[in-house]
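TEACHING EXERCISE
Course module: macromolecular assemblies
Task: Read the component lines below, then compare them to the predicted structure of the full complex.
Student: A.B.
Group: 4
Components provided:
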Amino acid sequence: MGGTGPQGKGLGYRFARHGHDVVVGSRAADKADTVAAEIRERLEGVEGAGRVSGAANADACADADVVLLAVPWDGHDELVASLPLAGKTVVSCVNPLAFDKRGAHGAVIDGGEGSAAEHAARLAPEATVVGAFHNVSAVLLWGDEEFLDEDVLCVGDSDEGKEVAMELARAVTGRSGVSAGKLRLARVLEPMTAVLISINRKYKVNSGIRITGLDHGEA
Amino acid sequence: MGGTGPQGKGLGYRFARHGHDVVVGSRAADKADTVAAEIRERLEGVEGAGRVSGAANADACADADVVLLAVPWDGHDELVASLPLAGKTVVSCVNPLAFDKRGAHGAVIDGGEGSAAEHAARLAPEATVVGAFHNVSAVLLWGDEEFLDEDVLCVGDSDEGKEVAMELARAVTGRSGVSAGKLRLARVLEPMTAVLISINRKYKVNSGIRITGLDHGEA
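Instructor-supplied answer key:
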């Protein structure tokens, strides 16, 4: 998985905690190693945890079945184009946001007809690209709750790809992610994070989204 | 309130059920009368219900403090420009959606830098425009549950205006709506309805959104 920021680190921790082997990727391998060590430290004593290591981005991808893109939008396209993604399931949780005095909002991508996830799909045509984990609080991911009280919305044009993300979501929420439509709906999920950031600032909380009306293993 | 479609009818019913007087608006006064009669029928025996009547759109607005825009995006601008909205709080729940073989998605407005709510604000500069109630299922609004198990996200540039919508939300969910940022974030809430429609189709449900991490009077 690519990304040593709070979102990538938090998701890597959650995935490893539930048995997935994780290779943290970064431009600089030593940065990735540092984050991997932080995650391993938090996993001490967790039975059944996966192995966690660090590597330069391309090396981190090389042996992975699933690549999580948790990278900044700035530089996204160059980075994605440089990675060996063919044949892999690529999960994008990239949130192209902009900030000004009025708060967070979605960056306008391709005149409103694009998203980071769609960019990844175009740049890695032999990968199966899915959008998921956009709206999960990095603070809560790194926190102590066993599971986060929210849903992971998964969008994609491949049902198989979506199912990979929906299964991964179990490590975060304790239940399957929600199949939420085609990849282009990442145009909504990505800037939805700006709405949650606005709520967080207003109420001093770490908010998340739950989908009501579903019965998919909720308490 | 303007709109005799399922969203407008359902919201009118919920508002009246909790004591708000409602004037249903439509292009044709007799269509509005018919919908008002349907709502009154459902309110029979409900103590403390508000009065419900019908009128042509402009007449429906004339004496209202709060105007709910629950109208199609097609023709939205002409209609809004024709209404006497100065000095009023205008709540837009308009969802500009498009549908094709791949399902529902957001219509692209102003190259990704606009929304129905922002259009309303521009067309009615002396009104206080808020976006809210976009993601509430019309089926559930017209259904039998006392309250809907979801949150009403309210966006706007006026805190006073947002509070009007947040209070109105109590009639729908039993608790205050959620202050979710500036009006431009309607660019996210409007097409979020396409995500819920996709979930509804996939799981055969009537889905809604709840914000987790908040403590605002939840059970």
